[in-house]
Design brief:
alpha/beta; 490 residues; 3-stranded mixed beta sheet; globular; Rossmann fold; N-(1-d-carboxylethyl)-l-norvaline Dehydrogenase, domain 2; single chain
């Protein structure tokens, strides 16, 4: 057994890929907020590829943690000199482990906020990237404006405050760079939000305007916020994953990452200064990300929501179980063919029918073991961004909404907190209490759940949606998820 670290990577077996570059020569050029599984399976992996080609050695990553739960990541990466193992899981059971070395520093912001700001104001930092989840941008779902009621934002708006939030750190660092005459860094959002660069720009600038209107004007003029589309299924690492890595490859890693073979990154080539040569390792640099982004959000992400609640209610617990069931596969393809895909613009270089069927194959990978509980979590940040726009466009065009309405109804049924066997469901959502309270009235007031205008806007006022939604909810209560799908698919 080999404890992962700089001194031991040379002792790992030939089956484990390791950095082929001198990590002591790597210098930080990117500050990243939100170092979780996805970032380590995706953006950090692409940089590691570049470094293995002898490039981008001045683009090392300095990770930043701002939340209490980020301390564990700080401790693991410190113990392992920033190294971790990325394990690709193939459908046939094969595992491909590789040690990633592109993260060269990690700062836990509550311990030393000034160290974080020093790193962010260093001229060598030319990109600040974000994977802070959909809710991390503080967008009011109905108005599209900044919701500044979050306690962290409120604290950071106080005069002379030491930053505690991602927004607080980004804006304070930009203010200091402006004062010092240092060019601003590019802010690169990598979250699953339509127009994520536009959203980051609008929300951060709105926050800055509450602190300093002149600074906000400068940010609008000078700071670049490229849009991006990112894709790789990355389930939560389990104790079994850690044990398999140790047993099969002799690597003791405190927090490895597991993922599917597929990976994609489409990135708008809109940077304020230098950037890594991402295109040399498979990143698609384009002028317009939106077609790819909408394809991914409305087909992959919305399909995850389409399978997770119904699958969980029917007794499944993993995505691959659902996608090995023809009834559910037919439902997912029906959603994609007749509701999701009609809302998409042409996607350059992509054959949509092939993409849709590839999604089913990816979801059905039995080795990834992506849990439905993970896909069901934080739905209030997902359904309004991924599925509600599909429903609105379909309604406006007079097209089908039956399947989308059923997905919303299945979320409402899931939020009741018990499955069809009477077993409790742990609803994980920042709005959990409100959602569960409303869902408890699904039988006596079936429109209460979707009357939350912060999540659904005026959908409750649309007669066609209401009819489809209430019929779906009633069927879920009376017949259950499986029988509801059988009736829908004929």
């Amino acid at each position: 057994m080999t404890q992962l670290g700089t001194a031991t990577i040379g002792a790992l077996g030939n089956e484990v890929g390791v950095p082929q570059y001198d990590r002591t020569a790597v210098r930080p050029g990117i500050v990243h907020f939100g170092v979780g599984g996805f970032h380590r399976a995706h953006q950090a992996m692409y940089l590691d590829r570049l470094m293995n080609d002898g490039k981008a050695l001045d683009w090392g990553i300095c990770g930043i943690g701002v939340l209490p739960q980020d301390r564990r990541m700080a401790d693991v990466l410190e113990a392992q000199d920033g190294l971790y193992t990325l394990v690709v899981k193939y459908p046939d059971g094969a595992l491909e482990p590789r040690v990633i070395g592109s993260i060269v520093d990690y700062l836990f912001a509550p311990d030393d906020p000034e160290a974080v700001l020093a790193r962010m104001t260093d001229p060598a930092t030319r990109i600040v990237s974000l994977t802070i989840t959909e809710g991390g941008y503080h967008v009011n779902q109905v108005t599209g404006e900044l919701d500044a009621s979050d306690p962290g934002l409120t604290a950071d708006l106080a005069a002379g405050a030491t930053p505690v939030s991602v927004f607080g750190f980004v804006i304070e660092a930009l203010a200091r760079r402006r004062t010092a005459g240092v060019p601003p860094f590019t802010v690169m959002s990598c979250d699953n939000i339509p127009g994520n660069g536009h959203v980051a720009r609008k929300m951060l600038t709105s926050f800055a305007r509450l602190k300093d209107p002149e600074l906000a004007d400068w940010i609008e003029r000078e700071v670049r916020f490229p849009n991006s589309m990112v894709d790789r299924i990355t389930p939560v690492t389990t104790d079994e994953d850690k044990a398999a890595l140790a047993e099969k490859f002799g690597v003791e890693d405190g927090w490895p990452v597991v993922c599917e073979p597929f990976t994609q990154w489409v990135l708008e080539d809109d940077f304020g200064g230098e950037r890594p040569p991402y295109e040399e390792v498979g990143v698609q640099l384009v002028a317009d990300v939106e077609p790819y982004e909408l394809m991914k959000l409305r087909l992959l992400n919305a399909s995850h929501q389409a399978l997770c609640y119904l699958g969980y209610l029917a007794g499944y617990r993993y995505a691959h179980e659902v996608c090995q069931d023809k009834l559910f596969v037919d439902f997912l393809l029906g959603y994609m063919d007749f509701e999701g895909a009609p809302t998409l613009p042409p996607v350059p270089g992509v054959h949509l029918d092939g993409y849709k069927r590839e999604l089913i194959e990816r979801f059905a990978n039995p080795e990834v073991r992506d849990t439905l509980a993970r896909l069901c979590a934080e739905s209030s940040d997902r359904i309004p961004k991924w599925l509600v726009p599909v429903i609105r466009e379909q309604l406006a065009a007079g097209r089908e909404i039956t399947r989308s309405a059923l997905v919303v109804a299945s979320w409402a049924r899931y939020a009741e907190g018990t499955d069809e066997q009477g077993e409790p469901i742990e609803v994980v959502d920042r709005l959990r209490d409100k959602l569960v309270e409303r869902a408890q009235h699904n039988r006596d007031d079936p429109l209460l759940f979707v009357s939350d205008r912060d999540l659904f806007g005026d959908l409750v006022d649309d007669e066609r949606f209401v009819q489809a939604y209430t019929a779906a909810l009633a069927s879920l209560h009376e017949r259950g998820a499986r029988a509801t799908l059988e009736a829908l698919t004929g």
